From TrEMBL:
Pfam families from the UniProt entry: F-box-like, SnoaL_3
Record-linked PROSITE patterns: FBOX (PS50181)
Source species, domain of life: Eukaryota
InterPro entries, per the entry: F-box-like_dom_sf, F-box_dom, NTF2-like_dom_sf, SKIP8-like, SnoaL-like
Organism: Dorcoceras hygrometricum
The name this protein goes by in its record: F-box domain-containing protein
CDD domains recorded: F-box_FBXL4
Domain F-box: residue ranges: 1-45
Lineage of source species: Eukaryota, Viridiplantae, Streptophyta, Embryophyta, Tracheophyta
Gene3D superfamilies xrefs: 1.20.1280.50, 3.10.450.50
Transmembrane segments: none
Length: 199
């Protein structure tokens, strides 16, 4: 029945589907595969799941590929916070690109350049008591061919602290690596933001 609808109505109907549903629809038959692979459907899904400020983007390989790349970066970025939460230094060592130009700015204002210095900084950071569980909000992601960056606000439940965080990734040897991390206190009207304690 859907294949009998005009393209505009089909695209509108598909805009209500989530990522798994759209993928499953593409496997039903050839007409549904054509409809589910429509670039406008993936553009609508991208704007529903990710940031809206990328209206001026024209993905060179289409919105489906751009959606997949953005979802991959978002998942990789979540992996970074998993590593921090678990203080998993071996995983952090594999997460960063081993290069002399990588750079890390921690929330205390200290900065480190080069792979070895950055790894030493994380070894020290994992001894800090305020490395806790993060709540990530206001995520903004941009993906290019071999570079991606993610900006977000991160909130630590332990001390009700809030931070601006920016992570930059580069694509090397078939996978994404972190090359830049920057954390700074989140300020509103010149005052560091403090969340109300739970309970």
């Amino acid at each position: 029945m859907m294949e009998q609808l005009v393209p505009e109505i089909t695209t509108h109907a598909l805009s209500y589907l989530d990522y798994p549903s759209l993928c499953r629809l593409s496997m039903t038959n050839s007409r549904m595969r054509e409809a589910a692979n429509d670039d406008n459907a993936w553009k609508a899904l991208f704007h529903k799941d990710f940031t809206l400020e990328q209206d001026n983007v024209t993905p060179p390989n289409g919105w489906k590929a751009y959606y997949a790349a953005t979802r991959a970066i978002v998942n990789i970025n979540l992996e970074f916070f998993r590593i921090v939460r678990e203080r998993a230094l071996p995983d952090m060592a594999l997460f960063w690109l081993n290069a002399d130009y990588v750079k890390c700015f921690h929330a205390n204002g200290e900065s480190f350049s080069g792979y070895n210095a950055v790894m030493n900084s994380w070894q020290l950071a994992f001894t800090w008591e305020n490395v806790g569980d993060f709540q990530i909000r206001d995520v903004r992601t941009r993906v290019l061919t071999d570079m991606a960056w993610v900006s977000m606000n991160a909130y630590i439940d332990l001390d009700a602290e809030a931070f601006n965080v920016t992570n930059i990734y580069e694509f090397h040897r078939g996978r994404w690596y972190m090359v830049h991390h920057h954390t700074s206190a989140l300020f509103i009207n010149g005052v560091g933001l403090q969340l109300l304690p739970h309970g």
